[in-house]
Amino acid sequence: MNFSNIIGNDNVKQLLNNSINTNNLVHSYMFIGADGIGKSLFARELAKMILCLSDNKACNTCSSCIKFNSNNHPDFNFIDSEDGKNIKIAQVRDLQEQISEKPIVSESKVYIINNSDLMTVEAQNCLLKTLEEPPEYAHIILVASNESKLLNTIKSRCTKIAFNKLSNDDLLKYANSHNISISDDLIGTCDGSISKLISVNDEAGLYNDLNQIINDLSNKDIVDIWNEADVLYKSKDNIIDLLDYFNIVFLNKLRNTNEEKYINSIGIVETTKKRLSSNANHDMCIDNLLLKIWEEFHESYNRG
């Protein structure tokens, strides 16, 4: 089975392999799923298989595979936002001009529009004609995380393939293969995303600080907890992620101990997240969060 270099979504691997083996490919695909779960990798691997000149698809030895692996294949193009905000109509028009020319190396041409949900409405409308009447040798793969941003007329002309988030076992497999050491608590914050796993690993020191705060709740005064919690006061942009980590730790401790303080602490964190999402004062929310959780860990203060 190909796609062997990609972790997870084995059902998608089987589906695409069957399509290749039975020569039952369609002209337009839409790969939908959360960020960081491998959609673009799948799209690239499928493109290489389509373009491969060997019966053993994605052989990595034919002239097509060699050109593809060196990012120098004239029958393949990977399109993405140039400014991180939009895919513009000019990029789609360029695709249309290229796609009208017959393939040079392979029997097919493949175009991937990554982050296709960033296409402007004008770009999507421009793409419609190509999706309606694609050249017989052409395949277009739209990769998107937010399907709702794509026009219904675009979606109706593509075969949709849904990708699942990766399991924690899949994430651990990736971490082990890339010499990343990560705790079960941190795996829980990754939400099935390899890109999130990489980001979390890059911020390991930050999560170590959170662990220290949690560990000190039982044996330090609340003033000391406030003083050592700079990371929570300064991390306004990613505070929800940090609070989610608190709850993953509390939930794991609850499973091991069944202590009520962990149930109550999870509720306190969720209330704080709602308040922050409603634009409540950040520092006051963190003050209150830490005080309420600290009280749960000190029975003499618990519920007054």
**Count of alpha/pi helices:** 15
Strand order of the largest sheet: 2-3-4-1-5
- Beta-strand proportion: 5-15%
User: Tally of extended strands?
Assistant: 5
User: What is the CA-based Rg, rounded?
Assistant: 24 Å
Show unreliable segments: none
- Write the element-wise H/E pattern from the N-terminal end onward: HEHHEHEHEHEHHHHHHHHH
Subunit arrangement of the protein: single chain
The mean pLDDT is: 92
Query: How far apart, in Å, are the first and last alpha carbons?
Result: 62 Å
* Structural class label: alpha/beta
User: Biggest β-sheet: count, sense, barrel?
Assistant: 5 strands, parallel
* Shape call: elongated
| Helix-residue proportion | 40-55%
Topology:
Layout: H1 10-21, E1 28-32, H2 39-51, H3 63-69, E2 76-79, H4 89-99, E3 109-113, H5 121-132, E4 138-144, H6 152-155, E5 159-162, H7 168-177, H8 184-188, H9 194-202, H10 204-216, H11 222-228, H12 230-234, H13 239-257, H14 260-277, H15 282-296
Parallel strand pairs: 1-4, 1-5, 2-3, 3-4
Summary keywords:
304 residues, 53% helix, alpha/beta, 15 helices
